[in-house]
Design brief:
The protein is mainly alpha-helical and 468 residues long. The protein is built from 18 helices and no strands.
Length: 468
């Protein structure tokens, strides 16, 4: 057996493709990692804007998250309809091209490509930034660690979809399991104490209120909290990765991902309200992430705390894998319509569209090198990629139902129209802010106080070199 076979796996014949297809258990870590990891920063993004309200702000987080969950449910049904209408893969490019025309499709494809490259680059750099916050002595090696993670992700993905799913099973389910334990244990304490739980260890006190709640502030809080919806489109873009029956398996996977995300979001919001936990100033010397505070309050700072924080750091770094799952499929679809070289339609030794993987690695590595492993300046482009592609996709689905008709077409068209309408409002009002909040949290890191025995940040986020 050659070294290449050890690293990449043995070459596969076309007839072995069915063996590389996956079910929901492997689909969750492959296509859901980015979405599920958003539970680590979505609620905090909203709570950060509520800091000026003091303790009063904590009481608003549950209704805000409930509104976000309501929108998430609408988006869920919207993507289920997309999977139903396009069982061979209904990414934004395909839907927009077939229903809005070639130019709209290419615009959606360009936006998605930008989004996937940024997802890979920012996911890696933010995870490494959190690690550097926990271990400041690693700061001089930030870029090297970023590139090492990129290489490891590349090798894992080049082994094929099935092996990738197996590799990410443990980190994903460890992350979900730890957060569910925190939530269940916290709710138990709330019940047995009659709604007045006492933290196992003290958490930072919230500052006094310095402002009043306004409709504009509430809108900004909602928009920032909607970072929790990033990555939910991945399943509809990769339907063909699932084994037969592909569409039902894809819908089942999407359902599990959304259900888990809803439980995590509502659980975290409820716990914050019950324990009186809010966000701390990301630029302050006493910064602690919300999840760090919650875990401390519920379980103290024993082994479980470090396992939980470690799983969060790992998942934040590996959330870049969503780009590896979907970028090659997107370039293949565009190339099939003669808008990219046909090289992107060729499969490699593991039945992957290898050219797409190579180009994603090249572009991501270039951004990491260009910005020294710190990609904050690119975040405003996220608003273009995420929101524009989604809006075009759902607008295309509205036209699809209007043209195809069929049973319940008016209801289906309404769901898609409300879905893209809400996302368009978010993009126009707070898209750049949303993505900036996302990486502001990730760079500061849930482990910023990882090894500080006094519960204080070992390194201020603002003190990280090369941040500007």
């Amino acid at each position: 057996m050659s070294i290449l076979d050890v690293l990449m796996g043995r070459p596969l014949a076309n007839w072995e493709e069915s063996g590389e297809q996956i079910g929901p258990s492997a689909g969750i870590p492959i296509f859901g990692l980015d979405a599920l990891s958003s539970a680590a920063y979505g609620p905090e993004a909203a709570l950060t804007l509520l800091i000026p309200l003091g303790m009063l702000g904590v009481h608003y987080i549950l209704p805000v998250v409930a509104a976000i969950v309501a929108l998430l449910i609408i988006v869920y049904f919207s993507y289920c309809q997309t999977i139903e209408a396009y069982p061979r893969g209904g990414g934004s490019y395909t839907v927009a091209s077939e229903n809005l025309g070639a130019h709209a499709g290419l615009l959606a494809a360009a936006a998605l490509m930008v989004d996937y490259v940024l997802t890979a680059a920012v996911g890696i750099s933010a995870g490494v930034g959190a690690l550097v916050s926990a271990l400041p002595r690693l700061q001089p090696h930030t870029l090297g660690i970023c590139l090492l993670i990129l290489v490891l992700l590349s090798f894992v993905n080049m082994r094929g979809v099935r092996d990738t799913g197996v590799a990410f099973l443990i980190p994903t389910y460890l992350f979900v399991g730890c957060l569910l334990i925190v939530i269940v244990l916290g709710i138990f304490h709330v019940v047995v104490t009659g709604g007045h739980p006492v933290p196992v260890m003290a958490v930072p006190h919230l500052p006094p209120a310095t402002t009043m709640l306004t409709l504009w502030l509430l809108a900004k809080v909602f928009a920032s909290g909607c970072t929790a919806m990033t990555g939910v489109e991945a399943v509809s873009n990769g339907v063909m990765a699932f084994r037969e029956p592909t569409a039902p398996n894809a819908r089942r996977t999407l359902t599990i991902i959304i259900a888990l995300l809803i439980v995590l979001l509502l659980g975290i919001a409820f716990m914050c309200r019950a324990y009186g936990i809010g966000a701390t100033d990301p630029e302050g010397s006493a910064y602690q992430s919300v999840l760090s505070q919650l875990t401390t309050a519920v379980a103290g700072r024993g082994i479980f705390y470090y396992v939980t924080i470690g799983s969060i750091l790992l998942v934040l770094s590996l959330s870049a894998n969503t780009a590896f799952a979907d970028f090659p499929r997107l370039t293949r679809a565009v190339a099939s319509n003669d808008f990219l070289p046909h090289l992107f339609t060729l499969r490699g030794r593991r039945l992957l569209y290898s050219a797409g993987v190579y180009w994603l690695v090249f572009l991501t590595g270039g951004l990491l090198i260009l910005f020294g492993g710190v990609t904050d300046r690119l975040i405003p482009l996220y608003a273009i990629g995420a929101f524009l592609a989604f809006t075009l996709s759902q607008a295309g689905m509205v036209m699809h139902w209007k043209r195809k008709r069929g049973p319940g077409w008016q209801w289906k068209m309404l769901v898609n129209s409300r879905s893209y309408g809400h996302r368009f409002d978010l993009a126009g009002g707070a898209g750049g802010q949303v993505r900036s909040r996302r990486v502001g949290y990730r760079a500061a890191g849930p482990g910023a106080d990882f090894f500080d025995e006094h519960g204080q940040a070992s390194l201020r986020p603002g003190e990280l070199p090369n941040r500007g």
